[in-house]
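Sequence decides. Consider this:

===
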Amino acid sequence: MRFLLPALAAVFSLPTASLPAQTAPLRAGASAVDITPQQFPLNMPGGFSANMAEKAHDPLHARALVLADGRTTLAMVVVDNLGAGPDVLDEAKSIASAQTGIPTEKMLISSTHTHSGSSLNTRTPAAAAYRQRFVEGVAQSIIQAHAELKPASVGAAAHPLPDEVFNRRWFLKPGKMPLNPFGKMDQVKMNPGTNPDVLDHPAGPTDPDITVISVQDAKRMQMAVFANYSLHYVGGAPSGEVSADYYGEFARLMPSRVRGNGKLVAMMSNGTSGDINNVPFTVTRPPREPFEQIRIVAQKAADTTWFAMRKIDKHRNDVPLGMLQREVTLKYRRPAENDVKEAWAVLAIKDKAEIEKLPRLAQNYAGSVVSAAQRPEETITVKIQAIRIGDLAVCAIPFETFVEIGLDLKKRSPFPQTMVIGLANGRHGYLPTPEHHKLGGYETWIGTNVVQEDASVILTEQLLQMLAKLKDAK
């Protein structure tokens, strides 16, 4: 379906009378497929310059959960990548659909946003080989999970882990705000450092909850754990090495936390973390060795997931499923004529001494302004999804989504508990709220954000409509 348009945690409890009819008991299957690069060097995108990896520190995976209730079969996949584009993901979905019969619109594939994941471009033979390995691996994760379908039961709950999430956008003390790349003054700054003489107060909240979908087989053995946390990433992996960041370490640890049969597939998805990171700005953290902070966060996340799972009174096999997908057309942002003129002037500067006088990243963002002005398309169409698993809802958004959007969806959702996944089915830049656009800052700059400034309002309203339709399904 295509449309053209301009928090408290609850334990999973399902009164049967309130649910739509289900034609068969729940079945589930899960799979993890290694998608670690085999050829190097490879760029790890995530900054403004090349960051080449020469080897892998730890494996990357595509992890899939397939659920079926006799009426609906759906797949939820988490891949270790900065943010796979819709072209790559659609290719993987098509392969998996041809093998399993699951419609592509019933597949959710989200990226973890590890900044030490591999690029999916095809500019070098190693990169082209990795893109093929990625597509085939993601497809195989769905195919294998579908082949593993067996009687299962499901439950869900949430538990807070506030210790490791921090809003990274800050108001600064008077006179401390530097010029942005456009030579103008923002009201807030992303990652402003930890100097108390500079910091005033954060510009937004955090979402402390880890929300968990727990899947058990007929013998009550743990088959899968699908978790969600609104934490951007941790970082601190060894230099020049590919890593799945804390998402991969969480998956490695989870089998030690639960009673399983040795085949547990655990996955951590990225929530609404566009303005959230792992830097405690008002606290001086001791130095860490490479990968140490990743281990610390993963251990806390695994423990918190365990606490969440303890809240589940009963796993149920009579849980009906539903899934909706919409294509929403948004307008691309266009710079003002004077902004384009100023950008060309910045790009015309060639003298190194004069370039040094420019604000940081001035030429990078001048290029973004020119590119935005020259973009031939006026609009972009993005996919959003809503899933029902009994009285749990899942929303999927293809942006680095601000935490306020996730909190708003959770508050306004008609379901007792709602999980919101970012970087789902594509990556189209940041998604701030209109209020944050007024404040400025990195995530709102043209080039970092590419869609109309009220896009978050449009997508939120569409998702709430979809949730209401799922809620009313008979």
